[in-house]
Amino acid sequence: MKKENKSKYAILGMLFDKPQSGYEILQFMKESTTHFWQESDASIYPMLKALERDGLVTSRSEFVGKRERKIFEITASGKKYFLTWMALPAEKENNRSELLLKLFFGATTTQEENIKQLVMRRGQAQETKRIFRRIAEQTLSQVSDEHPHKQFWSMTLRYGLKLAEAELEWLDECINILKNK
Amino acid sequence: MKKENKSKYAILGMLFDKPQSGYEILQFMKESTTHFWQESDASIYPMLKALERDGLVTSRSEFVGKRERKIFEITASGKKYFLTWMALPAEKENNRSELLLKLFFGATTTQEENIKQLVMRRGQAQETKRIFRRIAEQTLSQVSDEHPHKQFWSMTLRYGLKLAEAELEWLDECINILKNK
DNA sequence: GTCGACATGTAAATAGTTACATGATTCT
DNA sequence: AGAATCATGTAACTATTTACATGTCGAC
């Protein structure tokens, strides 16, 4: 069974509510799904073209002066295709972690180097928490409680916060163990 | 800057202590690093060949009857290469999560379907916890406390447990929210 | 004798990223 | 005038997976 490119579902989902350009989708992803889903411009434009070819979206060009904006709209068959995917069980992804790999091999190097790695990641995890708080304050607070998306956006945000906190606890645990040796 | 293939470091790390065959490395990974690092046979054999070409490992053939086993041994320059990587800061990986993507788009479908996704993942997370416990009991308990690897192996295991528990808490939270609507 | 685990590999396809390329508009 | 952002795209490359291919050995 060949591996499926799931980018198309992310794009169709973004178009589900309202027509948008590729650029707008990218911008919105950067401030919403970026911590669990990202697309690059080199992937989104060809994918939009493929979706149009397959009749899942249609496009029209708008012009602001001479600057073109290609607005994509999801079709009925696109919505059906998207909802079919929504009903399928989400695949559990096997993620690689370079930090855990280095820690696994920690015995090959010095305690100082191991601690340095963990402390660096601790800084990153704290930064991640700050970013999530900013999304909550700047993006999510703008959305009305009646907005059907709000509770789901909160949940994904809460996931990021909760996991970042668990990681921080683990990092502190490990740093303490290595320091008291 | 081109992206680097990190498989070679995983392999060199596995060879750091003792010479092994590709198959043995794969077997050991399956019972140790599989939840944060995996290689497939189609990646490990070509990579071992490349490492030998670059002088980072050497190989010799052993025979058990007619069955060949190619044993790879890390060289001095291989160890140096590996330790240089160990000293570099671990890259923070941007992982994609299909579950979070589906939940993000939860408003496009029914509460029942959303709950179903979360309940399914809860089962997987519990299974993950069971697997980690088995590793602790079957693999890690066999390793002496004096073994230099033990504390690091415990830490990576503890990470898996801690994150799985945080995920379970989050899943229960979300399931409750969706059920009481 | 045949099934599953052992053991090593290649071929083909796909996914995903980086770098490249172009030009418009807005802000300072 | 120049920099930053808007906006869309292609080319080239690298990584990674799936499927294929081959043969050995031990257990039942």
What does this structure look like?
The model of chain A has no long low-confidence stretch (mean pLDDT 94). Chain A has helices spanning 7-15, 22-30, 41-53, 76-87, 98-104, 111-139, 150-179; strands spanning 20-21, 57-64, 67-74. Chain A has 7 helices and 3 strands; from the N terminus they run αβααββαααα. In chain A, a hairpin with a 2-residue loop joins strand 2 and strand 3. Chain A has 2 domains: 7-87, Arc Repressor Mutant, subunit A (Orthogonal Bundle); 98-179. Chain A is elongated. In chain A, helix 6 packs antiparallel against helix 7. In chain A, strands 1-3-2 form a 3-stranded antiparallel beta sheet. The first copy, chain A, is mostly helical and 181 residues long. At the A-B interface, helix 1, helix 4, helix 5, helix 6 and helix 7 of A face helix 1, helix 4, helix 5, helix 6 and helix 7 of B. The structure holds a DNA duplex (28 and 28 nucleotides).
Mean residue pLDDT of chain A: 94
Q: Segments of chain A where pLDDT lies below 50 for 5+ residues?
A: none
Q: What proportion of the residues of chain A is helical, as a percent range? A: 55-70%
Number of helices of chain A: 7
Number of strands of chain A: 3
The radius of gyration computed from the alpha-carbon positions of chain A, rounded to a whole number of angstroms, is 21 Å
Helix-strand pattern of chain A:
HEHHEEHHHH
Number of domains of chain A: 2
Q: In order across it, which strands form the biggest sheet of chain A?
A: 1-3-2
